[in-house]
Structure formats: structure tokens, C-alpha cells
## 1
Amino acid sequence: MSRVMIIGCGGVASVAIHKCCQNSDVFTEIMIASRTVSKCDALKEKLQGKTKTVITTAQVDADNVEELVKLINSYKPDAVLNLALPYQDLTIMDACVECKVPYIDTANYEAEDTNDPKWREVYEKRCKELGFSAYFDYSWQWAYMDKFKEAGITGILGTGFDPGVTSVFTAYALKHYFDEIHTIDILDCNGGDHGYPFATNFNPEINLREVSAPGSYWEDGHWVEIPAMSIKREYDFPEVGMKDMYLLHHEEIESLAKNIPGVKRIRFFMTFGQSYLTHMKCLENVGMLSTTPVNFQGQEIVPIQFLKELLPDPATLGPRTVGKTNIGCIYTGIKDGKEKTIYIYNVCDHQECYKEVESQAISYTTGVPAMIGTMMVVSGLWKRPGVYTVEEFDPDPYMDALNKWGLPWVVDENPKLVD
Ligand code: NDP
């Protein structure tokens, strides 16, 4: 029924590709295109013979629009799923516009070189105007709205778990449980243990840039920014137990603030263990999280990129990670004139994921929604020329697909609130 090009072949892509191959009635043909073609070939080798999906592979530099256009025009996909890094969002979007092919991703644009004076000028203006200083925001991709409309193509931004499922949960809560949502607390808990003193569960460079940035939340129509890790709460997560969690800036706060009418406060919390926080602080203090190149013995290196080489590859954590994740949202608001509170969440078991697709739950909880978002587009259920985040579409078919494809969810109508 459809032909999809998937760009990137890392931890998240590997899960999305496994799930496309399980869903071969929808994904009849896929192309895996990435920087290191040997990884694409190895995955094809593993899956071929176990699926009806026809898999081809290709080498591509997704920083290069011309190369992308050539590849897309030769394969002629019905959609492009971007599972490379946020650095490649804009080049892949440019290529999709030129080829008039729908675009889907899981993370919003982030500049690789944060010292680029042209990017810095826009960034500093945005920090002043909006009041948060994270390196990533939606403005770069929302600027493609007219180009996507003119090309007649749908662009879906952020269909991982968070952002992604958390925003679909919000659209579902608004459609079925509330007349008005007043507060949203997004809680991302990883109760898994991989046995290493320090490792990240997805791309270390992107992960550490996100976690070490100042936190921020949305309240009464504006952003409130706080020093990194300065708001801590404890929460007793269903099926995981009591965990410390910290308030972070997160990208879906920006789109939900725009798209959920009447919302008064949106916060995002993520759990971290003490070992992770101590290692991160130390690495930050010695300059290892810096994105500014340094000269070492005649060679230019970027400290955080060098650190990535030293840390365990997130894609290898699967066999050794035990425990569960619990990711979801607590909503308060009004229904039929009465106050109402609900908590929608999913629990995912690291070892169950490994048994199914040889991956840990963080890649699983991102890769499955990436497949589902792409399915919404190629099956025509979500079709609207322009660039949109997932809460702007009908959540019902997506919520059904989560139950069917490995991420079942629960609605608790009497949850404990976060202070
Ligand atoms: P990985 O580093 O494991 O994989 C990235 C892949 O992209 C690699 O295969 C890499 O190639 C490829 N790639 C990088 N640069 C290029 C390029 N210029 N041209 C072509 N291919 C390139 O990352 P993850 O799988 O952990 O993360 C993938 C995406 O998912 C990221 O954008 C991340 O932010 C997002 N994410 C979203 C989440 C959500 O819930 N919304 C949660 C977790 C992640 P190579 O193999 O050569 O390195």
C-alpha cells in the first residue's frame, strides 16, 4: 500500500523499521537511507525473509539537500520519515518540499554549530522575545508552513513519545474528558537500569544538550525559566515506584501552549538517578559538554562529540537494561462545570522490548510512534497541507494504533497530583 523512505539507522530508526516490517500491509516497501550504509544493510539482512515488506538501502548525507532530492526522486516514496538527528530537519524538509513528498519527524530542529553567528543572532532574539534559552524551538520548522501548503504536502513534527504520544494524549483528553484543560504535567520516568555508572538512552549529544539546559515551564501566557535541575519532585509511578524527577524545558510545551485553548500551566518532569546527575555535572564542569571545537594535537575536536565516542552506544543497551518506563500526562480542568483530573500513561518493559525488537524501551517508545505517525500520513487519516504537531489531528486512530502496536495506555481518573 505504501512506499516510505526512512532516513537514519540508529536506535530509534531500528525500532521504527522493525515495526514497519511487522505492519507490511501498510508499509509494503521501505528504503533505509543513512550516512553509514553498512548499518542499513545489516538491518535489512536481519529482517529480510521475516517480513513481506520489501527493503532497499542507500547511502545518503542528509545535510546535503541536492543528494536528498536525487535519492527521493529516484525512489519516489509516499512519505519521508526523518530519524536522523535534529540537525538534519531543515535540509530534509527542503528536499521534501522540492520533491513534493510528505515529511515526518520525532524531534524539532536544533543547530549543530551553536557558534554560527547567523544562527546565534536569531537565537538570541528568540531568547529575549520568548524567554527560554534552549537551543531548540519550533520557529525554524513552523516557518515552512506556506512552503508545505504550496507544495500540497503534510508535515508532521514530533511523533516520538515525548514529543509525540504526550501531545496525542492531550488531544485525546481534550476530545473525550474535558471542556477545558487548565494544567498539564508531563511525566517521563525511566525506571530502567543498564548497569553502567553513566550512559544515555538515546543519542548522547542530543540527550546531554537537552538535559543540561536551563529548565522552563509555561504559566499564565509566558515562559518561566529556572536553573537546570533546580525544581525537584518525588512521584510514585504506577508499576515503577517512587522516583525523583526534575523540571526540564521540553519541546512539546511550546506547541501545546499554542494549540490547547485556555491552558494555564504546562510543566515537564523527567526522572534521573543520582549517579547520572553527578556524572553529568562533572562532565559539564570540565567542559566535556561543550559544542565549541577545541584544538587537540593539531586536530579540531568538539568535546561533546568526543564524549559520544567514549560513552556506550544507546543501541547496545538493550540486552542489559531491566525495569520499566512510565511516560504520561496528568491533566486538570473542567468538564460539565465540574473540576476534573486524569492521568494517561503507558508502561513499557525494557526486556519485553528487547525480546521483540532487540532494543531498550526508550528507543522502542520513540520508534513505535514514529511508525504510527507515518502510518497516519500514508493511510490518508492525517492529511493537511502545511506543517503541524500531532495534537492538531484527530487523536482516536493514533490512540487505537498505540494499543495495537505495543504501547497500550491507561486512563486513571483519580491520580495523585504533582505539587
Ligand atoms: P542515533 O544517533 O542512534 O541515530 C541517528 C542516525 O542518524 C544514525 O544512523 C546516523 O548515522 C544518522 N545520521 C546522522 N547524521 C546523518 C547525516 N548527516 N546523514 C545521514 N544520516 C545521518 O540517534 P537516535 O536513534 O537515538 O535518535 C534519532 C532521533 O530520535 C533524534 O532526532 C532524537 O532526538 C529523536 N528522539 C526523539 C524522542 C522522542 O520521544 N520524541 C526520544 C528519543 C530520540 P551513523 O550511523 O553514520 O551515525
## 2
Amino acid sequence: MTESNHNLKIATRFRRLKKIDALRRLVQENTVSPSDFIWPIFVMDGKGETAEIPSMPGVVRYTIDLLPDVARRANRLGIPAVCVFPYTDPVLKTQTCEEAWNPNNLSNRAIKTIKDAVPDLAVMTDIALDPYNINGHDGIVRDGTIVNDETVQALVRMGRSQAEAGADILGPSDMMDGRIAALRQMLECDGFQDVSILSYAAKYASAFYGPFRDAVGASGALVGDKKTYQMNPANSDEALRIVQRDIEEGADMVMVKPGMAYLDVCQRVKSKFGAPTFAYQVSGEYAMIQAASQNGWLDADDVMFESLMSFKRAGCDGILTYFAPRAAELLG
Ligand code: PBG
């Protein structure tokens, strides 16, 4: 043995298990599969049409009659759930937001259409007043203030109409206090004991939502910002307290949103509570990756998989992502 290799710490050669693909796969700690995805779907009025969303290349809005095909595609790809977001006609937006609980609003028609076409596909909803609010806020605005308790009553009406339409998972994204308890009580009392709640618990006041507001036609509408109800990006202890409260109030699953800039929060939430935990890889995250790829600056598919894996590594059980159909197709 020569002097030089005697000094090598050969017990710690991490390269041994990287030598060939077989060994790398053998010791891989985390995986991504289509079963991890919830696919967000934008819906609009009309017939036989899709509309491109310029700030989200590759994502379109669908008219209701196209949803059976979309649902069958999700099912074929092994994606377990879709989440419906409506592009609401501006004339239906009011101060009081009653379109939110119209049994025949766009969102409720979409839920029914998808459940009729593919009963096995789970349908998730969004509960917040912003698509129906003349000022773009998630809650009812009185004298410049987003009023909590009156908003919660409206959200309960909205959630009931979604449960009646056949939704499997309600997704309150509004960040009002007390809405999980109120929704859970309504579900228990009105015969919807088996409808789940996926609480957007750790939802931050983020600049990453920009393209989504284009997609649902809310960007022009928003007056001011959402900082009096969405979380301060500087906080993570608060996220744990909100998650704890929402679980105690009856949430079955919780979400951290946005995703990539908040992986530390995902990890803290999962390790502290062990509840089913989801990250929302939001519109701005999707847009950044697509824009850079369109410029030839990075490879969209590679970055997509790397980012999806990061959520699994952080402990998430699943991911709401606009990449769902693309990733599932490549995984399939
Ligand atoms: C509405 C809602 C938003 C998103 C999901 N539900 C926007 C917001 O809070 O302003 C954002 C999703 C995304 O950016 O992809 N309450």
C-alpha cells in the first residue's frame, strides 16, 4: 500500500452507488408518479373552444362540453384528481358575490360534467369569492375592509353548492378565520359527511399568483392586495399554527402555497403533523420554467421533474401542478 492511497477514506466513497443507473435507481429515496398529481383546470363559457393563457404557455381554458374528454385524459394518464377554476363573465361579478353559490354557475356545471363523465376521477373545487367579486378579493369588502364572518357565511353557501354538484374535495383558498369549522359543520349537517376538505392553510400573499389571475380574469379586478388575509412570506411558525387549527377544525388535508419558494414550510408541516400535505406549484412557478425554456435557457421537462421531486423530498404527499398532464404523459 502506497503512502498516498493509505490516507484515502475509502469507507465513504459515495460514488460507488452512482456508478451505473441500476445502482442509482436502487438507492433512490423518493419517486414521483401520476398518482401524486392534482391537475388544475380552467373552465369558461362557450362551446367547443379552448383559449390560450399567454402568461401560462401550454395551459388553456376549456369550455364545459370539452371537459368529458379532459376528464377521460386525466383518468387515462393515472391522474387521480382535477381542480376546477372558473373564468367568470365580468357581468356576473358583484359586491355580494351571489354567483359563487349559484347551483348552475360555471364551476358547478363543470363539476357535474366531470363527475358524470368519469365518476372515478376525484374533483376538487376552489372556495374563495375572487372569481365573483367586483373588486377581485377573496372575501366580501365593506368600507375597504375584507369582512371575515360575513365572508365565511358566503363561503359555506358556496361550499354547499359545490358538494351538491358532486365535488369530492372542497378547497378553501380564501384564508378567512373559522371557515374550516363552518364548512365542516355544514357538510356534517347537510348529508355530505364524506366530502373532504383540503385546506389552503399555509397560503402566502405571493407575487407568484400573477398568471393565475390572468387565467381566471381577476388581475384587472383586484383592488389593493391580499395581505390582510394571506400570510406574510417571512413567517413559518404561523403556518404551523394555522395548519394545526385547520386540522382541529376538520380539514382532512392541508396545503402549502406557493410551492418551490416554501419547501421549508412543506417539510415543517409534514414532519410536525403527518397529515396529508400538498404543495401548490403555482402559476408563476410554471410560467418561469416555461418562459426560460422558450428562450432556450433551460430544459423544461428536466426542470419540471426536478421541481416535482423536490416537493416529494420535502415530504409532500402530492402536488397541484399545471405540469400534471405533461409529467404524467412522460412518466406513463
Ligand atoms: C383564489 C386562488 C388563487 C390561486 C388559487 N386560488 C389566487 C389568489 O389567491 O389570488 C393561485 C393559483 C396559482 O397562482 O396558480 N383564491
